[in-house]
Amino acid sequence: MLADVYNMEGKKIKQVELPEMIFGAPVNIDLMHQAFVRQMANAHLGTHDTKVRNEVAGGGRKPWKQKGTGRARQGSTRAAQWKGGGRIFTPHPRSYNQDMPRKMRRAALRSALSVKAAEAAIVVVDDLKLAEPRTRLMASALNLLVGESSALVLIPEKTNYDNVILSSSNLPATKVLLAGYLNIRDLMTFDKVVLPLAALEVIQSNLG
Predict the structure, then answer these.
(1) Cβ within 8 Å of residue 8, ≥6 positions away
(2) pLDDT band at residue 208, thresholds of 50, 70 and 90?
(3) CA–CA distance, 42 with 8 (Å, rounded to integer)
(4) Which end of the chain has the smaller Cβ count within 10 Å, N or C?
């Protein structure tokens, strides 16, 4: 599968062969959905908590005697039917984590990348570096490469791409991500994937 390679000015300079097993893999929608649900569930902290009747303060004595008042019997003012009482069937801390085998996670990523490739949403660039951290420079480059579409910019490493990371931080429709941290949620969230050749090598080594 051949893809055009562009420079920072948006000009086509050559072509590169995209690995067929990664960018031309069979698309499994169910697997992509499972991977997406898993990632969103694992991001759920599960720290929600409410107090039951033995955790709220007060209510130590019986509010009135058991019989003879004409009122319903009550054992504590901290029961759920009282204001300030404990709660019933409400959330408590728990884990939302879901397991998914690594082979399935990688297959889901290959499916998502194949969908992007089929939609011509993979923009390959020879290199993506800026001489200085300027939002204006990054916005101008992305406008030439992807137009007004939202963009997921993949970089191979942090070391030589500090200016790219800093210059993209104020662009609301852009996210810079290490290629080794590629995930299904970001692939499905952004319209285009900007892929430097060095990042392509990382993806090929991880998913190939």
Answers:
(1) 125, 127, 128, 141, 144
(2) confident
(3) 36
(4) C
Question: How do the residues of the chain divide into helix, strand and coil, expressed in percent and rounded to 5?
Answer: 35, 15, 50
- Measuring CA to CA, which residue among 166, 58, 43 is closest to residue 98? 43
pTM of the model: 0.85
With contact defined as beta carbons under 8 Å apart, do 137 and 167 qualify?
yes
Residue 187 lies in a domain: yes
**Domain assignment present for 171:** yes
Phi, psi of 15, rounded to the nearest 5 degrees: -125, 155
- Residues ≥6 apart with Cβ < 8 Å to 45: none
The confidence score (pLDDT) of residue 60 equals: 86
Q: Provide the residue count of the chain.
A: 208
| Nearest-angstrom CA–CA distance, 177 and 35 | 18
Q: Report the CATH number that the domain containing residue 153 is assigned in CATH.
A: 3.40.1370.10
Confidence at 98, pLDDT banded by 50, 70, 90: very high
What DSSP string runs through 126-145?
S----SS--HHHHHHHHHHH
For residue 201, is it within any domain?
Answer: yes
Answer whether residue 15 is part of any domain: yes
> 2-30: per-residue pLDDT in tens?
899 999 988 999 999 999 999 999 999 99
Dihedral, CA of residue 200, residue 202, residue 206 and residue 208, to nearest 10? 40
CA dist list (Å): 156 to 3, 7, 146, 178, 200 = 19, 17, 20, 6, 8
